[in-house]
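[job 4471] stage=fold_predict status=RUNNING
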Amino acid sequence: MSDTRVFHNFINGEWVEAKFRKTFENKNPADAREVLGIFQKSDPEDVKLAIDAAKEAYKKWRLVPAPKRAEIIFKVAEILVKKKENFARQMTAEMGKILKETRGDVQEAIDMSYYMAGEGRRQFGQTTPSELPDKFMMSLRQPLGVCAMITPWNFPMAIPSWKLMPALVLGNTVVFKPATDTPLSAVNLARVCDEAGVPPGVLNLVTGSGSAVGTPLMSSKDVKVVSFTGSTEVGRKVSQACAPDFRHVHLEMGGKNAIMVMDDAKVDLAVEGVLWGGFGTTGQRCTATSRVIVHKKVLKEFTQKYVERAKALKVGNGLDPEVEMGPSINQSQLDTVTEYVKIGIEEGAELLCGGKRLESELYKFGFFHQPTVFGNVDPKMRIAQEEIFGPVVSIIPCDNLEHAIQICNDTIYGLSASIYTSSIKSAFTAMRDTYTGIFYVNAPTIGAEVHLPFGGTNHTGNGHREAGTAALDVFSEWKAIYIDFSERLQKAQIDQIVE
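[job 4471] inference complete, writing structure tokens
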């Protein structure tokens, strides 16, 4: 314990202890005996210090030309490239997903930083003719001010970068609250931003619980927008906290994503896609494939091949290059998975493989669960309707494409969906009729890229999107500008004689 490194909050350009000097441990979910670091257990006073620093820094940062702000973000990307492997290994140790995936997580932060650096010269507005003579009109973006960012543990560097980079390039300042399960990756990202030259107070990092840090952060009237990624339940609380003051809210929440496998699909390709979509990140993605809607004509073939592949997956510590699936993030999440397996059995679904916690000598100090597949699942069962956030996949039979789309849409969520088919007509019909924010053809429900909008419909989000140019709308407001150089009073929409 005495050799364990202690990490601090980052406020106004300095690494500082929490006001009351309380701390918490960051443990490896693959082996909970390993403490990766000691982090600050902050309280509302620490949050206020961070908000005050961001508020003061905003006065100067907003006036820095956007291309100059972008040069700093470009440097962030360059530094991340150099430190990618080290950061990926630390991320695997603190949240469990396999090394190939954590490398991808850091790479996504790199991609987003490069992309948003380009937006320093591309924050385009519009110019348009006036209905009046000698009058010029245009629109432009203006920053909001202090932005709060509350991020999850499953993508502890990628998701913060989706929020942080567009906010900074637009001239906002930030208070960043990472998940308590993954503070190390957040510290790494903050250190890179500091090294790249982000001025003091522009980025502030405060670690701690949702109640002690998240609640006062989202309730502060000095925070102009709260960008939250997490559960729908907590997202609703964020929305309610901001509503009285009409402050901006961006919510990215749950999903119950489906892959539709049609009778003309390449079954082997579909099996591999569903395997990656269902068990990548141990099923702990908002875009994870938790439902597979399979045409009855290929149901038997698909199920047999899929279950065989699921049984063969190697589970273990993500730093082992042979491991294909890591642990759940913590005991609570593992308990949730085991409870839903119990629910599925009680509902009458057929347990085809898995269903148990792994407790042998290799696994006993971690939070490991078997890859689990249910067959003969009714679309109305809880395991087919509620987000599990674990390695549990439900196979649902369907009669035809129309039936598959109906089942796919029958959920409170609407994040990601996919179809495997050889028919152009079926693919385009599904693209049109599936009500989700993301859609794939002959690919799983995971794998979004940074230059297209990311987000969902229904209870998945509140209409905003991350990534791409859509992210700029979350962290800026439009201003319309009218310049009359006629040197006389002109009244818009009032009949005028044009000389």
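[job 4471] summary: The chain has a mean pLDDT of 97.
[job 4471] exit 0
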